């Protein structure tokens, strides 16, 4: 039996799930981990890796102001599009992406780095079925790339494990990406069960857990991938759910299952059994 017991999964949903021990890489729980899903904003992790790499090698500076190309102005997720002053540095744009999955900051950073260069990050790390694929678009017409990002749980859990181990390009690059992801304010999915303060969990918080994660949402998708440590264990995880084409909006059963997985992760990393984990 796997250490992480998955809940009943709605069969109308396409799932990709994997949880691994972050120290050993051993699989603790999984369900169709090689199933490729549309992953909404998750691919922004690879943009952050590219930005961190350029900051580390000096080809970008943290204080450099990021131009916002008119053709890539977008709204929805994030804060920058609502700000009166949209002057933002490279470092702070990346922080907005990590904290609020900021679409405008994302597009500005992609334009700064180059879409082809950002697309190449995941393959360069050895991933065949996971990548950032396109800018964030207000409307995705048939002539545009089919999704902003795609991925499998197997590969997403692995990149989070490698970030936690300092193995993505370098310890400096990995640490910088995790610094930005530490600010993620979206704890509505797997992380909801961890009971962390959504706006203040950079340091060890409830039950001594430390979370670094990225989420993605669309009208037909929910994805949460992260690195979670506690006093008893550390895990890397990815849970992706797609229900594109369904006649029903299946976010309710998807979120219920994600929270149930989160309960399992909390019990595992804190060393509490499931009854004690309720305390």
TrEMBL record:
SUPFAM superfamilies: beta-lactamase/transpeptidase-like. It comes from the Bacteria. Residues 17-240 form the Beta-lactamase class A catalytic domain. Keywords: Hydrolase. One of its GO terms (biological process) is response to antibiotic. InterPro entries: Beta-lactam/transpept-like, Beta-lactam_cat, Beta-lactam_class-A. Coiled coil: none annotated. GO terms for molecular function: beta-lactamase activity. PANTHER family: BETA-LACTAMASE (PTHR35333), BETA-LACTAMASE-TYPE TRANSPEPTIDASE FOLD CONTAINING PROTEIN (PTHR35333:SF3). This is Serine hydrolase. It comes from Microbacterium bovistercoris.
């Amino acid at each position: 039996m796997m250490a992480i017991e998955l809940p009943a999964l709605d069969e109308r949903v396409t799932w990709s799930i994997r949880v691994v021990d972050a120290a050993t890489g051993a699989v603790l729980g999984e369900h169709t981990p090689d199933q490729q899903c549309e992953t909404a904003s998750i691919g922004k992790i690879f943009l952050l890796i590219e930005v961190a790499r350029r900051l580390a090698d000096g080809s970008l500076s943290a204080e450099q102001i990021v131009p916002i190309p008119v053709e890539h102005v977008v709204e929805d997720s994030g804060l920058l599009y609502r700000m009166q002053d949209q002057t933002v540095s490279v470092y702070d744009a990346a922080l907005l992406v990590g904290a609020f999955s900021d679409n405008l900051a994302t597009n500005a950073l992609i334009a700064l780095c180059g879409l082809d260069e950002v697309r190449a990050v995941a393959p360069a790390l050895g991933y065949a079925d996971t990548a950032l694929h396109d800018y964030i678009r207000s409307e995705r017409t048939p002539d545009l790339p089919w999704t902003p990002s795609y991925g499998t749980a197997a590969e997403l859990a692995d990149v989070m494990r490698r970030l936690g181990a300092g193995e993505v390009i370098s310890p400096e690059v990995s640490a910088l990406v995790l610094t930005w992801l530490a600010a993620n304010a979206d704890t509505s999915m797997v992380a909801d069960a961890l009971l962390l303060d959504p706006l203040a969990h950079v340091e060890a918080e409830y039950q001594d857990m430390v979370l670094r994660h990225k989420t993605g949402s669309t009208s037909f998708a929910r994805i949460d991938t992260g690195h979670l440590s506690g006093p008893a264990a550390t895990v890397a995880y990815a849970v992706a759910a797609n229900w594109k084409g369904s006649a029903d909006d299946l976010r309710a059963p998807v979120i219920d299952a994600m929270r149930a997985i989160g309960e399992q992760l909390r019990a595992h990393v804190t060393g509490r059994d499931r009854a004690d984990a309720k305390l």
